[in-house]
Design a protein that fits this description.
Blueprint lengths: L9 H14 L10 E9 L4 E5 L12 H10 L6 E10 L11 H10 L6 E7 L2 E6 H4 L11
Parallel strand pairs: 3-4
Antiparallel strand pairs: 1-2, 1-3, 4-5
Bound molecules: tetrahydrodeoxyuridine.
The site of tetrahydrodeoxyuridine has 13 residues, from strand 1 and helix 2.
Length: about 150
């Protein structure tokens, strides 16, 4: 992660990872079997959870990250510090499940790319933290229209 970003406390990171892993049991994936869980930390400390929700028509599928963001935004929350994302086939966490391009773009809408932190984990003892800028360089956001 780049310098200048306020580090998250380890206990908070671990709590977010545990919460994201718990979401895997709610993930609705009859088509891909690929389960994803997310825990989104708002600036005020509130945690919003999400899982992926698939659909027989495929394209209405919602990713775990966007489920968490839309839950928060629909409750009037628009300031965020970090998100944790975990996922894997049948819910087995062998590799990082990095956010898809659409989810990165949704993060870009509401987050400062140099401050928003994305925690990718396979367990509470194995994770890496990236800024949104690292995962979405040269991103297009609200500022691009100013
Ligand atoms: N998925 C997510 O939930 N988040 C991502 O960022 C990548 C993909 C879900 C969507 C679909 O249910 C499954 O993973 C396979 O693409």
């Amino acid at each position: 992660m780049s310098g200048g970003v306020k580090p998250l406390e380890t206990s908070l990171v671990e709590e977010m990872i545990s919460l994201a892993i718990r979401q895997l049991s709610f993930s609705y994936t009859p088509y891909s079997g690929f389960k994803v869980g997310a825990a989104l930390l708002a600036e005020d400390g509130t945690l919003y959870t999400g899982c992926n929700i698939e659909n027989a028509a495929y394209t209405p599928t919602n990713c775990a990250e966007r489920t968490a963001f839309f839950k928060a935004v629909s409750e009037g929350v628009r300031s965020f510090r970090a998100i944790c994302v975990v996922g894997g086939k049948d819910g087995v966490l062998t590799e990082y499940a990095a956010p898809c391009g659409v989810c990165r773009q949704v993060m870009m809408e509401f987050c400062d790319p140099d401050r928003f932190q994305i925690i990718l984990a396979t367990g509470t003892d194995h994770y890496d933290i990236f800024t949104l800028r690292e995962l979405l360089p040269q991103g297009f956001g609200p500022g691009s229209l100013a």
